[in-house]
Amino acid sequence: MFKLFKRVKTVVDSELNALLDKAEDPVKMLEQFMRDMESDIRDAETAVAKQIANEKMLQKKYEDATKMVEKRDEQAIKAIEAGNDDLARRALEDKKIHSQTADTLKESYDRAKLDSDSVRKKLDEMKAEYYQMKLKKDSLKARAESAKTRTKMNRTLSGIGSDDSKRGFERMEEKVLQYEAEAETSEDMRSSNRSLDDDFAALEKNDVDDELAALKRKLGKE
Description:
Layout: H1 3-14, H2 16-21, H3 26-81, H4 85-159, H5 163-219
Helix pairs in contact: 1-3, 3-4
């Protein structure tokens, strides 16, 4: 009855680190340990209840046998007072039988009571251990959650400024420089094209002026 609980407690105390090394979820494992303990305690409570019931049954039988001893003794006295020795003898013989039964039942009852006291004590110890493990479980659970949070934060922070991140920033910087170079080139080309157009415009303007001067000379308007 109590060996199962002891087995579970041994696993919690001595094998928790091994379970963690196997990458098992410690929170889930601790919850399972507690459920196993609770199941063992329920089984123990059932066994203790049966033992107590047996103790009470033997106690009642012992008390009933004791009462019969007292009753037969009183009846024997009444029979003697009535001058009926035969009836008194019969009462005393039955008293002897009930007395022997009472003695046997007393031994069984005393033994049952000792057993009940023993299993009660063990059950109390189991419950005390359970509550200690529950406190330990809550503490380990909190520590596990805290460790997970720290690990997650450390992994996130370690990614900032890493080689991959630096290379990514450098690639983006190169792209920005390329975009700026392309923009400057396009502006230079536009400026160059504008100057060429201006030159042609100036050339065309000069041709018109020459033609105007020639026409004036022809008309004698100079």
